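Rotation project, supervised by the postdoc (A.L.). Task for the rotation student: set up a whole-complex structure prediction and record inputs and outputs verbatim in this book. Inputs entered:
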Amino acid sequence: MTQLIWAREGRITEAMRQVAETEGYTPEEIRDKIAAGVAIIPINKGRSIPARGIGEGLKTKINANIGTSPSHFNLEEELEKLKAAVDAGADAVMDLSTGGDLKRVLQTVLNNSPIPVGTVPVYRVIGELLCQGKGTAEMTADALFGEIENQAKMGVDFVTVHCGVIQSTVKTLAGCERVMGMVSRGGAIMAEWMAIHKEENPLYAQFDRLLDMCVEYDLTLSLGDGLRPGAIHDAEDRAQLSEMMILGELAKRARKAGVQVMIEGPGHVPLHRIAGDVKTQKRLCDGAPYYVLGPLPTDVAPGYDHLVSAIGGAIAAASGVDFLCYVTPAEHLHLPSIQDVHTGVIASRIAAHIGDLEKNLPGAHDWDLNMSKARRDFDWEKMFQLAIDPELARSRRNQSEDKERDVCTMCGDMCALKSYTRATEAEEK
Amino acid sequence: MTQLIWAREGRITEAMRQVAETEGYTPEEIRDKIAAGVAIIPINKGRSIPARGIGEGLKTKINANIGTSPSHFNLEEELEKLKAAVDAGADAVMDLSTGGDLKRVLQTVLNNSPIPVGTVPVYRVIGELLCQGKGTAEMTADALFGEIENQAKMGVDFVTVHCGVIQSTVKTLAGCERVMGMVSRGGAIMAEWMAIHKEENPLYAQFDRLLDMCVEYDLTLSLGDGLRPGAIHDAEDRAQLSEMMILGELAKRARKAGVQVMIEGPGHVPLHRIAGDVKTQKRLCDGAPYYVLGPLPTDVAPGYDHLVSAIGGAIAAASGVDFLCYVTPAEHLHLPSIQDVHTGVIASRIAAHIGDLEKNLPGAHDWDLNMSKARRDFDWEKMFQLAIDPELARSRRNQSEDKERDVCTMCGDMCALKSYTRATEAEEK
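Outputs recorded:
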């Protein structure tokens, strides 16, 4: 049984009740969104964490990618990254580890995460082959499905599977004049495997096998966009759209089987294409929740891609994106540090909140209004409490000379709010 | 004589020639933009710095505000801020000092700035009154005009004057249900003065006196938006629009007198109102260059307002804004530090470049394309050179374990670009 099957049968689960309460809806409204497939609750049947909903009419959610790599592996640091992500307000975390004892890392993340955990199972399959001096050629379909099932048993809440990287879409890609080709690790692995074995992608060819596992564990599918653009030059070409059409078909099959599903999106996208991309996804995938990485509307700012991603993410969320995968300041340079995780989550939360303002979600405008009232009243304590990163706001203010006064060092006594108050008082005389 | 008068007479100045060269236009095209008032070259006739153009079809420019305050005053630090702004790529700097020996600070900034320098002259008038234990009530119109003339003589390239804060617009403001009232320092000072003296704003009442000074020194006017919103709740109300209409009338009078003029804009604006605000300004002010602060599409992120401002600034620039005033991470908390100046300029430059991509300006797309090609080719040196902040990108990469390899610590050997290359090679076999 899955949340989707229960919803379709009219039943309201505890998870739906929790989501209803945090989002300001009735349990029936949440149930109907789940039943229609426009919202999901990624929670493995073996997990006991607070349920979080992703989808239409719900608060825009944030995912933080953590994980080791072959040249940077430290389990303690991963746990600190997990804590940093949760503390900064992430709604989900993906363990994308590719270095060290991958099963142990994932088990530790699952044991310690109070938020849904996602993975890309093919990473572990390939990661272990690489450790043995082997490569993608030696991967078998059974090993891949076996790993997905293992992870479902361990309690993983959602998995990214690159089912849309198939013979036809890869051929379409070959005919596109891309600068960057493929930039999705999982997608490129599947393409390499298919090219070597001259076979169809097993995740596509045996999609029903995947669906059976998902139903058993209520494992949510995140249909990966292996053909996403890695440069704004490459955005929204035939390759990207041909894959999205396949993902739309697969999403339909998943829902029919009772499997919760969301769709992944780009990536590098020019500003004026972001809203259109979201509308196209919603159309082609029948309103399935959209989970985007970025998007990044320029390629030239390594070191600031969290900021670039917040620009694209705000517009994406305002246009209907449901779930933002964060991008950290380390993107395009190296594996993120603990501080990068914190900064990345906050940047994405800013984008998500701007999206929520535009979606006119319950409570979104009150947050800004209350902050502005606190500002007007020089109520610094309240400003800190309301700040998206209270600790940072407080510590910055406390480093300044005017920390004990009501004004700040920007204007001191030449404060506009005070001048205007005097102006209105003089006016009334 | 001013650049505008020369342009209108058909003459091409050295400044126009310089702008034409850096922007990729013919000198005649630049002259015609200046003559039409849709572009300006803020350069005092007494200054010898490279000319920079601001306006339609030209690269989106960035201003960095620096300056002392009564509780934070250090001339050396101001010079370092100036250097940080210039090094990070600012196109103009405003000395907004309100603490210490203001004339000396301004003279030092002018002597050391290779980019146009702007000021808000009323700050010095009030700053010196505050030092004498006096206040706004003691300001005289003659002192204000005298200060503007002093600064024009010193070589200031552009001044913000709050000419639109007049009896009628302040009355409109009083009827609006704002949370924040007035948040413009200069605007609030004028409102307070008017309320105390029961007189019209002298900058409006004696606007021709201002224009005469501007013609003499080719001082560019930046018509300040004293009634700009200080909370997204307050954006685009009748007060803001009534002031913009006045500024449009004054811009027309300025151009008629041969004075170069731009219009200042907000501030705190919800995402969906940004594009409309720009279009309204262009309509009401006959295409005069638009110079906005931010805009900030949410109020809740003190400590990250550079990022919030980059979100709003990218959309504003994409919608036609010509000149972005940076916002630093210190906004709403304290006076910016040297590091804040650097971060603020880079954040604004990212927004400006995204705007330039959307404006489809010469060379804008090539930058991203070249970066993506360098990424595809694992050409790290070229990536650093092309990065918007080369030093940061280089130093971050150099801190990582894989700095000597072609790959990065994010993926190591599980690199999508490498997998896809192997895939295409296998495909060809």
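Student's summary: The beta strands of chain B are 39-40, 54-55, 61-66, 92-95, 117-119, 158-161, 220-223, 261-265, 290-293, 323-325.
Supervisor addendum: Residues 364-428 of chain B form one domain.
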